[in-house]
């Protein structure tokens, strides 16, 4: 059990800004221990994912692509609904913390206020990153172009989400930023799967939202480093913090590069 696990045991999980439903109340410290104990599940899933990409693309090489449109509609609609609900249930804590006099510091560095609803949907958020690996299954079976950004993003987000939950990192307060973006993103994908024509500028907006998310997350981690450098307590694992910053900075570079190549440079082929 690491330091943040011990801190979590002493929390009074608050409910004045949001009441949790019965199914949202669970043994939070025990779940943190399980994440630490069963890391092999994380690494095994990543191994299977990479093997599927390699073997799946080889297997599909001389086969016709599968349609899977109906399945894709339900898949994206399901993830959109999950993202919307997660955002709605996690947002009250974010608003509560930001409304405090030292709101930015509270939401990034402190564990003094937490809610079972937010904790539960934070857990669901971490586990949903396993489910989202299924996005790649559709790409491979439909023989669409699988770019580096896609599979790199899926693997590293899964890693960050798992360890963020395991370490009870305060950064997890802001999972609602990701679910907010995904609410729009998966809704957009579901509409596309339904063959609804959507203006190109909407696709551009989805990428801009992703880039904006990376800018915000970079700020959060740089702010954490600043507070630690000033000697103020910040309940974040320093080694994890540097890892997050490095990965998110790489996201920023990759998403900006994708945006430039897909929308700003003229191309003879349609970007998928």
UniProtKB/TrEMBL annotation:
It is a multi-pass membrane protein. Keywords: Fatty acid biosynthesis, Fatty acid metabolism, Lipid biosynthesis, Lipid metabolism, Membrane, Transferase, Transmembrane, Transmembrane helix. The chain crosses the membrane at residues 41-60, 72-91, 120-141, 148-165, 171-191, 203-226, 238-260. It is found in: Membrane. It catalyses: a very-long-chain acyl-CoA + malonyl-CoA + H(+) = a very-long-chain 3-oxoacyl-CoA + CO2 + CoA. GO terms for cellular component: endoplasmic reticulum membrane. One of its GO terms (biological process) is fatty acid elongation, polyunsaturated fatty acid. PANTHER family: ELONGATION OF VERY LONG CHAIN FATTY ACIDS PROTEIN 6, FATTY ACID ACYL TRANSFERASE-RELATED. It holds the Pfam family ELO. Belongs to the ELO family. One of its GO terms (molecular function) is fatty acid elongase activity. Its EC number is 2.3.1.199. This is Elongation of very long chain fatty acids protein. InterPro entries: ELO_CS, ELO_fam. It comes from the Eukaryota.
């Amino acid at each position: 059990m690491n330091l943040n696990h011990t801190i979590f045991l002493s929390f009074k999980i608050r409910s004045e800004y949001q009441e949790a439903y019965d199914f949202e109340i669970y043994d939070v410290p025990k779940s943190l221990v399980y994440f630490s104990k069963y890391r092999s599940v994380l690494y095994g899933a990543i191994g299977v994912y990479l093997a599927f990409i390699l073997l799946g693309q080889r297997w599909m090489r001389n086969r016709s692509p599968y349609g899977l449109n109906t399945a894709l509609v339900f898949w994206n609609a399901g993830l959109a609904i999950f993202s919307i609900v997660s955002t709605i249930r996690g947002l009250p804590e974010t608003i509560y913390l930001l409304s405090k006099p030292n709101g930015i510091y509270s939401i990034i560095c402190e564990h003094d206020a937490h809610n079972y609803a937010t904790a539960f949907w934070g857990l669901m958020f971490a586990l949903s990153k396993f489910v989202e690996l299924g996005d790649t299954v559709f790409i491979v079976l439909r023989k669409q172009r699988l770019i580096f950004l896609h599979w790199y993003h899926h693997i590293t987000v899964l890693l960050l989400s798992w360890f963020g939950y395991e370490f009870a990192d305060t950064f997890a307060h802001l999972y609602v930023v990701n679910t907010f973006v995904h609410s729009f993103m998966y809704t957009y994908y579901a509409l596309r799967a339904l063959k609804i024509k959507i203006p190109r500028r909407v696709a551009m907006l989805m990428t801009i939202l992703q880039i904006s998310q990376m800018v915000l997350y970079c700020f959060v981690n740089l702010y954490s480093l600043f507070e630690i450098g000033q000697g103020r307590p910040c309940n974040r694992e320093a080694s994890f913090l540097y890892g997050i910053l490095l990965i998110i900075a790489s996201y920023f570079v990759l998403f900006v590069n994708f945006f430039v190549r897909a929308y700003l440079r003229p191309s003879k082929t349609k970007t998928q």
